Amino acid sequence: MPQCPQGVRELGRNHPWLRFPNSCSAEACCCQAPRKHPAIDRQIGAERGLWRHSDQSKKHLSCAALVLGTWGGGLVHGPAAATAASTRPSGSLTGSSSTHEFQAETRKLLDIVARSLYSEKEVFIRELISNGSDALEKLRHKLMSEGKDLPELEIHLETDSKKGTLTIQDTGIGMTREELLSNLGTIARSGSKAFLDMLQNQAEASSKIIGQFGVGFYSSFMVADRVEVFSQLAAPGSPGYCWCSDGSGTFELSEASGVQAGTKIVLHLKKECMEFASEDRVRDVITKYSNFISFPLYLNGQRVNTLQALWMMEPKDIGDWQHKEFYRFIAQSYDEPRYILHYKTDAPLNIRSIFYVPEMKPSMFDVSRELGSSVALYSRKVLILTKATEILPKWLRFLKGVVDSEDIPLNLSRELLQESTLIRKLRDVLQQRLIKFFIEQSKKDPEKYAKFFEDFGLFMREGIVTIAEQEVKEEIAKLLRYESSTLPPGQLTSLSEYASRMPAGSRNIYYLCAPNRHLAEHSPYYEAMKKKDAEVLFCYEQFDELTLLHLRQFDKKKLMSVETDIVVDHYKEEKFEEHRPAEECLSSQDAEDLLAWMRNALGSRVATIKVTPRLDVHPAMITVLEMGAARHFLRMQQLAKTSEERAQMLQPTLEINTGHVLIKKLNQLRLKQPELAHMLLDQIYDNAMIAAGLNDDPRPMVNRLNDLLAKVLEKH
Ligand SMILES: Nc1ncnc2c1ncn2[C@@H]1O[C@H](COP(=O)(O)OP(=O)(O)OP(=O)(O)O)[C@@H](O)[C@H]1O
Ligand SMILES: [Mg+2]
């Protein structure tokens, strides 16, 4: 009987137009003379690497329909059904059957595997499909090394809700009697591991074998009270066998006829597990765990796994649409990725990964989510965890994607990672690579990056605040962007760029936190700073202050809030020359008297009062040691309700500008109209506290302001 070439059947299943119900006799089938098939070649053949046929397309199409009815090694043409059958008959038992006891330790372990090893029952499907995939891989390896043609390599699942069965069949290597006895009779004995050991580092095949522990098969007893395994070695003339067990202590082994090359496993489901006889349920499980298995997977005759494991491919071979499709699958989302990083490496660890940054801006809910990353962990294309929180630092949780690494230590159930230095290493390598990627992107397209930073910057700030290691904080800090006093509004700059512009010898990176550029530029602190002629970064976001406080330094330069710098200058007793003519300011005697009066009037609301030459347009400013931290502390604690309480904690200094009209007027009024002078002083003090961001509730001063306004307007 002629064998049908792979491509035709493949096409038949996926392309309904090939399913013509024409009759096509085996004799007339063009498959016997495979060469060129114009219709198929033109349509899809080229991209799938199909066989080419010489006969007329019509004939061939009908043949395709015919062969849909059969599949697997030893495929036979004949008057078969025109739809794709899924699994083949099981074969009948011949000869005597022998009963075997599981080895003592296997019996005990079987119980553990069936009851408590796996967190979810559904993973038995993943385990059996993975075994099928390994069997196919072994057959492929064997035939290729013998230089033989490959037969159909595929896996079929069939649900039968009437009988309450789920059947999984592969056209793989199959098992001999001895292999059935030892591989399925002894737990923790992995024929696949032995196969790998035999291969000894033949990387190509070894990276594709999934089995390693020798327990996966027994997960079938979580859901089945009887499991039948029909298997026949994929070598001409090999006998078929049937292995059968209820998982309680013994299994039976007998020779069977009519068994197909490969392995077929029939699970007779427990009553409470009948859900796995439902096609929809099984499809969901396959799509979740085994969507990227390298071999075609069919469920009740329909192909399920159509997506490719992109992360295993060469980046240049992947089209945009493939990324979009894959992103939507992995992120369960309908937007598109704005950034894509496909990262493959073999040193220091084996990593195959793809990361996506979603187009959609994260909601507050996403930001505050306590969960870790949304990156899925695969091992050799099989899903291990949908959300592998361990493999990326928490601040990178906005990324979607996949990490696959042969080096990741999995525990027996595969679903748990063993926290180890290796996982930490993986996390570090990925973090470093991602930061590097974002820096590259910011150079490539600054505008696009600015949008990304606006949408996702909060995560970076969180990373800097929460991560303990200074080097890592500084790495993440390379991603921060701010406006700067030396650049036009709207243009952003990085800390690294700031550092590169610093004059030789300067050691501080200055920043000022304010709600927007206007307020920053008109702040008394910025005014005081201007005299130094240093570049100042303007930080507008709520958490910038906290972030920079935590960062403390960058590239050996100190991060210095301009407010703090003013205080530090005092300590250093740095002298700023008064640049105004003396007659524009109060005389030193007047100033001293005024200070004494103010001290008395303000009482415990200030720790010190002094004259500053650093202000022009502002009458006064408040300085506090570590202003940012103080502000943050006040906000968090909601303590200190009154100005006196606040002052006790902050120990503020009030610095006054004796050249300012308000201060000069105050000096006159304190003698002539003490009541008005007190009101004016209170207002100047409150204004300075507001400018310092230390007064969050200006309501109490409204009455005073009204009184002041009334006085101003008295004469009008
Ligand atoms: N469909 C199959 N075809 C051929 N051999 C199989 C098949 N299923 C299981 N085996 C053999 O039985 C062995 C045990 O399978 P089992 O799933 O318990 O362990 P494993 O796949 O080796 O490791 P893991 O626990 O990681 O899955 C396999 O190593 C393999 O040799
Ligand atoms: Mg297995």
In short:
With 716 residues, the chain is α+β, with helices and mostly antiparallel strands. Helices cover 40% and strands 17% of the residues.
Mind explaining what this structure looks like?
With 716 residues, the chain is α+β, with helices and mostly antiparallel strands. The chain is built from 25 helices and 22 strands. The strands form four sheets. Strands 1-6-5-4-7-3-2-8-9 form a nine-stranded mixed sheet, with helices on one face. A five-stranded mixed sheet has the order 10-11-14-12-13, sandwiched between helices. Helix 1 packs across helix 3, helix 13 runs antiparallel to helix 14 and helix 23 runs antiparallel to helix 24. The chain is elongated and about 125 Å long. The relative contact order is 0.06. The structure holds adenosine-5'-triphosphate (ATP) and magnesium ion. The site of adenosine-5'-triphosphate (ATP) has 23 residues, from helix 5, helix 6 and helix 7. This is Heat shock protein 75 kDa, mitochondrial.
List the helices and strands and how they pair.
Blueprint: H1 6-14, H2 38-48, H3 57-67, E1 92-101, H4 104-117, H5 123-145, E2 155-160, E3 165-170, H6 177-185, H7 191-199, H8 203-206, E4 224-232, E5 240-245, E6 250-257, E7 262-269, H9 279-289, E8 297-299, E9 302-303, H10 320-331, E10 337-345, E11 351-358, H11 364-368, E12 374-379, E13 382-385, E14 400-404, H12 421-444, H13 446-466, H14 470-477, E15 483-484, H15 495-501, E16 508-513, H16 517-521, H17 524-530, E17 536-539, H18 544-551, E18 553-554, E19 557-561, H19 562-571, H20 588-602, E20 608-611, E21 620-623, H21 627-637, H22 643-650, E22 653-656, H23 661-672, H24 674-691, H25 702-713
Parallel strand pairs: 2-8, 12-14, 16-17, 16-19, 20-22
Antiparallel strand pairs: 1-6, 2-3, 3-7, 4-5, 4-7, 5-6, 8-9, 10-11, 11-14, 12-13, 15-17, 18-19, 21-22
